[in-house]
Write a structure and sequence with these properties.
By secondary structure, the protein is an alpha/beta fold. It has 10 helices and 8 strands. Strands 1-2-3-4-5-6-7-8 form an 8-stranded parallel beta barrel, surrounded by 5 helices. It is globular, with a radius of gyration of 17 Å. The protein binds 2-phosphoglycolic acid.
Length: about 250
């Protein structure tokens, strides 16, 4: 069965104060939701234990990135096993900001996915085309190749730890959202790619990300292949984030 997920990616934002203000109210909301949505907070790694300490049973916690190694002389990196050890159950991998600003390659993304699933974390694999690629008619091909490359090392028995987040680069932090129809079309295409590579496509959750807000979430989540959202800016305000979690319909997807 596909999980319905709303995950808040704080990026390099937040503070101990924000953890204190926001996590309690999101937690009580997560505990009272009856639409089956799994709510995840993904703060900067340094705040993970503060968030975990306030998260209760229903609120999940994740990290935004891990190194691909399990331990060793890699100053500044954290390992998937360490995130698991601190109570995380999710990790983002291959976010477009990591690909664009930090030069993360498809091979590194694949190695991180391998390390994450081996550690028992759910890897939220981020893919998405640039505006230039979309305008050149290459969006689906670009996304398909990112999906295939990222999942190259996943083996049978690990697919329940894979989530794919489609985030068109031109929609991230810009206030421009893909229309629900365009997002749905890309999600259907990703599901087809998953089937082609032998993954259990119908049971893998696909999230949409890129300027998801309280007022556009319901239309996106109503689409049959959109199983939730990866939320940046709007995850930093408890009310906005909670409204997005509430926008998940109880009965769509399966
Ligand atoms: P945004 O970010 O919601 O601020 O556009 C989404 C993301 O980058 O995950």
């Amino acid at each position: 069965m596909r999980r319905k997920i709303v995950a808040g990616n704080w990026k390099m934002n937040g503070s101990k104060d924000l953890v204190q203000q926001l996590v309690g109210s999101v937690r009580s909301e997560a505990e009272s939701l009856d639409n089956g949505v799994e709510v995840v907070i993904i703060p900067p790694a340094i705040y993970v234990s503060d968030v975990v300490a306030r998260s209760g049973n229903r609120l999940m916690v994740g990290v935004q990135n891990v190194g691909q190694w399990s331990s060793g002389a890699y100053t500044g990196e954290i390992a998937a096993g360490m995130a698991k050890d601190q109570g995380c159950s999710y990790a983002l991998v291959g976010h477009s900001e990591r690909r664009q600003l930090f030069g993360e390659t498809d091979d590194e993304v694949a190695a991180k996915v391998e390390s994450l699933v081996a550690s028992g974390l759910t890897a939220v694999v981020c893919v998405g085309e640039t505006l230039e690629q979309r305008e050149a008619g290459r969006a689906e091909a670009v996304v398909a190749s990112q999906v295939k490359a990222a999942l190259d090392n996943v083996v049978a028995g690990q697919w329940d730890r894979i989530v794919v987040a489609y985030e068109p680069v031109w929609a991230i932090g810009t206030g421009k959202t893909a229309t629900a129809e365009d997002a749905q079309a890309m999600h259907a295409s990703i599901r087809q790619v998953l089937a082609e590579i032998g993954a259990p496509a119908e049971s893998i959750s696909l999230l949409y990300g890129g300027s998801v807000k309280a007022d556009n979430a319901a239309a996106l989540f109503a689409e049959p292949d959109i199983d939730g959202g990866l939320i940046g800016g709007a995850s930093l305000k408890a009310d906005d984030f909670v409204s997005i979690c509430q926008a998940m319909p109880a009965s769509t997807n399966s």
